[in-house]
Design brief:
globular, 366 residues
Length: 366
């Protein structure tokens, strides 16, 4: 119950390659606004950047292969042709160099959108992100704003090894002066990225490579060019009364699937999509826990000092007397990511782990 890793049972269920992806069929239970239209996360991100560049000439894009190649994951497709090389900059392979240029441009009043081919490479630029971007507003007594977005894929992909599979949510969320966002759906991606670009402060925008091609229902409201989601506000993806499951990014899909399975056994799970890691919507989390009296947290990142650890601390501090069971914390294994597919699956949370944890919290485990 208090352990930070799941007890594993290797069974012969779905193939590992299937379990690595959140299937679009999971959308049926989600609380999106009604509408027949769908959009991929990739197209949602692309449209958000396009519209913000069109609306504000100060917005520009920079990074490796964002121009002529149209982005390693095609997020910047069509932008070079539309806006030209003065606003879509292909940079050398030097994260420290182009991130420093981006921060300097933000000092001067421009609004750079800096793409990292993967957030693992942001480690090369972490001094600029933390010591220059995050701290300047405070150190200048509010005289300097740094309106910059650092975006790109974060966390585990598939078969890319330890140096390309870390989740940086907890790393950056621990830094005052940064805002850290992690979208799940197309509506999340579109609304949050537009909010990030418009924000006067530096924003770390953590996407998930395996979600880029996933399609989600999207409302007419979200397709409007003025659409924007509030930073710091979580979303209740599925309402429930027996147990609260809190998570973010790709794990939201896993939690929704687990909630469907739990419902078949008479357990009503409430699923919260954090959307914003910093600031953290503690009010929504605690209100849900006070309703259900049970909490399961899920993240791909390392367990020690993780996002889930912060959520658990918040609930213990604010809602301890409402808990009817110990908190269940599910995280990635406390090891560098293995390369082998079978070990990679064991190192990451799976749907069955969430189901077992929720059953334990409800005293329904066999």
């Amino acid at each position: 119950m208090l352990g930070i890793l799941r007890q594993r049972a290797i069974d012969g269920g779905l193939a590992a390659s299937t379990l690595r992806r959140t299937r679009s069929a999971l959308v049926s239970a989600r609380s999106y606004a009604a509408g027949a239209k769908e959009m991929t996360v990739r197209d949602a991100l692309n449209s958000a950047i396009d519209e913000e560049m069109s609306a504000d000439p100060k917005v520009f894009v920079m990074g490796e292969e964002v121009g002529q190649y149209q982005g390693a994951y095609k997020i910047t497709k069509g932008l070079l042709e539309k806006y030209g090389p003065e606003r879509v900059y292909d940079t050398p392979i030097t994260e420290a160099g182009f991130t420093g240029i981006g921060v300097g441009a933000a000092y001067a009043g421009l609004k750079p959108v800096v793409e990292f081919m993967t957030f693992n490479f942001s480690m090369q630029a972490i001094d600029h992100i933390i010591n220059s971007a995050a701290k300047s507003n405070y150190m200048s007594a509010g005289q300097i704003n740094v309106p910059i977005v650092f975006r790109g894929p974060n966390g585990a992909a598939a078969g890319v090894g330890a140096q390309h599979s870390q989740c940086y949510a907890a790393w950056y969320a621990s830094v005052p002066g940064l805002k850290v966002l992690a979208p799940y759906s197309a509506e999340d991606a579109r609304g949050l990225l537009k909010a990030a670009i418009r924000d006067p402060d530096p924003v770390v925008f953590l996407e998930n490579e395996l979600l880029y091609g996933e399609s989600f229902p999207i409302s007419e409201e979200a397709l409007d060019s003025s659409f924007c989601l509030p930073i710091g506000k979580a979303k209740i993806e599925r309402e429930g009364k027996d147990v609260t499951i809190v998570t973010f990014s790709k794990m939201v899909g896993f939690a929704l699937k687990a909630a469907e399975k739990l419902a078949e056994e008479g357990i009503s799970a409430e699923v919260i999509n954090l959307r914003s890691i910093r600031p953290l919507d503690r009010a929504t989390i605690n209100a849900s826990v006070r309703k259900t009296s049970r909490l399961v947290t899920v993240e791909e990142g390392f367990p020690q000092h993780g996002v889930c650890a912060e959520i658990c601390a918040s609930v213990v501090e604010e809602s301890f007397s409402y808990l009817d069971a110990p908190v269940e914390r599910i995280a990635g294994a406390d090891v560098p990511m293995p390369y082998a597919a079978n070990l990679e699956r064991l190192a990451l949370p799976q749907i069955e782990d969430i189901i077992r944890a929720a059953k334990r919290a409800c005293y329904r485990s066999k």
